[in-house]
Amino acid sequence: MPLLDEIIGGAVDDEMPLSVLLRKCLLLAYELKNEKLKAWTENELNGYADADALPDYRKIKVTAVGTFAGPFGNLVNNQPLAASVLPEDFRHWAESAVLMQPVVAYDVGRDAEGRPNNGKFQWPADLVALFADKFLQGWNLVRAHQVIPGSVFVSLLDTVRTRILQLALELKKETGDRAKELSEIPPRRIDQSVVTNIFGGNIVIAGHAENFAQIGAISIQEGNFDQLRNALKEIGVEAAAIDNLRKALREDAKADEAKPTLGQRTMGWLKDSASYASKEGLKVGIEIAKKFATKWVLQHLGIDPT
What we know:
- The chain is α+β, with helices and mostly antiparallel strands.
- The chain folds into three domains: about 1-55 and about 155-205, no CATH class; about 60-150, no CATH class; about 220-300, no CATH class.
- The chain contains eleven helices and six strands.
- The strands form two sheets. Strands 3-2-6-5 form a four-stranded antiparallel sheet.
- A hairpin with a 5-residue loop joins strand 2 and strand 3.
- Helix 1 (about 1-10) runs antiparallel to helix 5 (about 150-175) and helix 9 (about 240-255) packs antiparallel against helix 10 (about 265-270).
- It is flat, with a radius of gyration of 23 Å.
- About 30% of the residues are buried.
- The model is unreliable at about 200-210 (pLDDT under 50).
């Protein structure tokens, strides 16, 4: 199995560029006919379109710093910005970030002393203007950015390479001593190996989510329950649970002068893990199902989920 051996060798050897290793992994995904591996590899190569589909290793903690202009034209640079100053909906700008770009974008290199270079994400100008006078009395915030430690990028690249290695070694083990072909490995075993080694066992938990790559891009028009129903079916929510949701939405609307609203019954449905139980099992993990379902229900109600 030359391809599998090439992947193992490339994952161990840092000299093989990660983009090349991922392309070999994409070839493997096609050979295995595994849509989950294909989706993950393409996302790592091309970037993620939806933050809801991001793996945990692409969600990071950050700090924020800013430049302030004060009396007599004085400037203060790199002043730490306290998240507590910001309203709750904006605090993530001083606390967390998501890494959406292709993985090669985070190969930032090292400085002359061998330390990984740091990165930064600039705050939008409108955000700076909105909170310009909220941090330091008598001083105005004129620029701000999130500080991304270089170690975060090193960790991201190493995590992707290690997960590929773990999968390849697991598949190698599955071929046994007689070196049987990859096509002889049962699809269920391949799927399990991908879930465990690539997704960490907590993203996709049931087989045959062929359209997993498209789930994060689903959007629901306000008031369109058929779209909501179809979206929930995509992640494996059973028909009875969807009917219960429709009843909850109707009851909440009756209680609020027939206006669609996020009432107690609908919120109860979203919080009830049992509502997602399916005879065939969910196509995504419980927490991911809740996140997508909440997003789609809010869209159905005309509420901005962001």
